[in-house]
Amino acid sequence: xxxxxxxxxxxxxxxxxxxxxxxxxxxxxxxxxxxxxxxxxxxxxxxxxxxxxxxxxxxxxxxxxxxxxxxxxxxxxxxxxxxxxxxxxxxxxxxxxxxxxxxxxxxxxxxxxxxxxxxxxxxxxxxxxxxxxxxxxxxxxxxxxxxxxxxx
Length: 152
Known about the structure:
Layout lengths: L12 E4 L4 E4 L18 H14 L1 H13 L4 H9 L14 E2 L2 E2 L3 E4 L6 E5 L1 H9 L4 H14 L3
Antiparallel strand pairs: 1-2, 3-4, 5-6
């Protein structure tokens, strides 16, 4: 038995509680939870609801991600941020990248082989390390290249 009143709509349409009307089914996506079924809200209202939820639960989701990925609580981020004085462990810069009018957090860097957390990195250093596959030899070769061919 459903939670709300049963809405009878014409074929090819579905009721959206956000629109408060029946809209074309092409405006709905398939649900991740219920295989083969459409979401309750149309794409526009579903996106609004998700954004509102994620904004309200950001810290909770970060804590869950840290526990799942690193077996630790989010306080490790706060502790490292304090130890590093809010700066990248590699280049020493502060994170300046903006997203939705907020400065992004430094990335929690970890070893992909051991899972051990190493420190906080700015986006550029974190991406560079990832693109070089965390391989010390590749990093040395890139440094040698820059030293030999770039004017400092």
